Amino acid sequence: MQATTRGQSGGGSNMSIDPNRVILTGENPFIRLSVTDGGPITTNASFWRIALSPGGPGHVLYVKSEFTKGRWRIYSDNIAMARWLQTTVQGMLNTETADTTIPVIDADFSRSGDVRDFWTETLITHDEEIALTWHDMGDPLLVHTQPNETPGRPYGVCTLLIPALGARLTHNGVQADGQAFATQRDGRPFSTCALAFSESWTAAR
């Protein structure tokens, strides 16, 4: 009985603990739409659902599209978390979003769908409704990197990426221009749009 309990609690020699400090865990689906394959990104959206971070839990959308007139806009239900992400992981992923003078718009968030078919994240403000939808899912990829493994990336990540060959973003019922396009990631089929679940980011101790 004791041996079984140790195995169930992760004490077996076939398991290891990441030595780095966990700074957040949650989800980070993204949408990058273009009118032509390889053309300029017309809609760039980074969505976060955070369960744990120094700024607390919550949701945030960083988005730039024609409806934002080509400028970054931020929607969140936790401004402290949104700002913390700008100064850490999100700001590293896209330096344009690191600007903490961008106003944060209060929003309520919800989700729907089944990842086998489609997934939709929706936010509502006093005068806006934005919906991000992913569909035509591909095979998932499990990615694990270490802090400072790549120059300019001080954080590590473990995440499940699910490429979506179809995606759209609507603002007050109007669909943004562009579409998802198939790509590759380390030789595996991927897309310019993807769900990112079970995502944890780390920093070196």
Describe this structure in words.
The chain is mainly beta and 205 residues long. It has helices at 2-8, 79-87, 89-93, and strands at 21-27, 30-34, 41-52, 58-64, 73-76, 104-106, 108-114, 118-124, 129-137, 141-145, 155-171, 174-175, 182-185, 188-191, 194-203. The strands form two sheets. Strands 1, 2, 3, 4, 5, 6, 7, 8, 9, 10, 11, 12 and 15 form a 13-stranded mixed sheet that branches. A two-stranded antiparallel ribbon has the order 13-14. The radius of gyration is 18 Å and the shape is globular. Mean pLDDT is 94; it is low at 1-7.
Approximately how much helix is present in the residues?
Answer: 10-25%
How many DSSP helices?
A: 3
Would you identify the regions where 5 or more consecutive residues have pLDDT less than 50?
1-7
Average pLDDT value? 94
Beta-strand level of the residues, as a percent range?
A: over 45%
What gross morphology would you assign?
A: globular
Radius of gyration: 18 Å
Main sheet overview: 13 strands, mixed
Which class of secondary structure composition applies to the elements? Answer: mainly beta
**E-strand count:** 15
Quickly describe the structure.
With 205 residues, the chain is mainly beta. It has helices at 2-8, 79-87, 89-93; strands at residues 21-27, 30-34, 41-52, 58-64, 73-76, 104-106, 108-114, 118-124, 129-137, 141-145, 155-171, 174-175, 182-185, 188-191, 194-203. Strands 1, 2, 3, 4, 5, 6, 7, 8, 9, 10, 11, 12 and 15 form a 13-stranded mixed sheet that branches. It has a two-stranded antiparallel sheet with strand order 13-14.
